[in-house]
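Q: Entry one of two.
A:
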Amino acid sequence: MSREDLIEIEGEVIEVLRNANFKVKLVNGFVITAYLSGKLHLNNIRILAGDQVKVEMSPYDVTKGRITWRLKSKN
């Protein structure tokens, strides 16, 4: 699957799970399980509940995703 096939959407982290997994509520209302991408994990970027994130999902399984970016807070 190429990068053009991925679905990219924004959401908010609602729960932090173990092993760098997160429950993310997407802007369309769905709740998915997401994990950190390689760059976020290697650079020790901290993701907390309430953070706005950008998530990539496969069109074949839209219940799981990969967090690729932590968006700046609105404050």
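Q: Entry two of two.
A:
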Amino acid sequence: MARSSNLRIGTRGSPLALAQAEQVKTQLTEAFPDLAAVLEIVVIKTTGDAITDRPLADAGGKGLFTKEIDDAMLDDSIDLAVHSMKDVPTWLPDGIVLPCMLEREDPRDAFISEKATSLDGLDEGAVVGTASLRRQAQVLARRPDLKVVSFRGNVQTRLKKLSDGDVDATLLAQAGLNRLGRADVATSVIETTDMLPAVGQGAIGITCRGDDRKALHFLGALNHTETVARVTSERALLEVLDGSCRTPIAALAEIAGDRLTLRGMIAKPDGSEVLETTLSGSVANAEGIGQDAGHDLLDRAGPNFLEGH
């Protein structure tokens, strides 16, 4: 079979994933107008998309949104793949590289409710729906009286469940709402001092085969170096902690001048224990700062913290 002459962009099929792929397509076309005629979006169904009846942590966690896309790249069915960085495992398959991240969107979480304007405004015993143990742990640490239930599905599905009264409130990534043109549905945006985001939240990463010089050339023009430094630091913390979907881990790196400050957190899923750390250093040492922050949390947590739930 002759190789396609198109530049094929692999993506999941959710509305948000497609919006992100279209954003990549637009930016590639702006940087390289000749690509307009050959860019093609290829939708790939992943295991994570197929599982809707239980929390992803129960199905194996990491990599559920990337494995089939990685396989398609390795068998030359696609040339590029667009991922939400918070879904990308810290270890990439052999032969695949991550040479590009787009400029990061808002990393904060959005609070959505028709019954209150913030978490603190919810009635005692109110039900919050989320599929994220990170959000669950931080909600319960702040409001142990609330009830948190598992809440799967894409943005549209979750908003419908909320309007149907299945829960009193939910939390979504503000970046996703912005990209879908639905920022208006956020009742309020939660500051990162009140809820630390997921590692890489708000950042889009684009992978390709390590030996694909053409793809590497195109992606090099789109790469946002400050976003790479921030997400690299956060992912280094995650890698040290060997985080899985069963471990509430949060981190956010921010840059001012040539200084990077990383805040990290691990918690028990029920919010009963929360450990936090903050480290600063040179942007050039982004990965080292993340590793040091991860080891700090690991040392303080002890051997049973991450498994003891």
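A: Comment on entry two: Residues 233-301 form a domain with the Double Stranded RNA Binding Domain fold (CATH 3.30.160.40). The chain has a mean pLDDT of 91.
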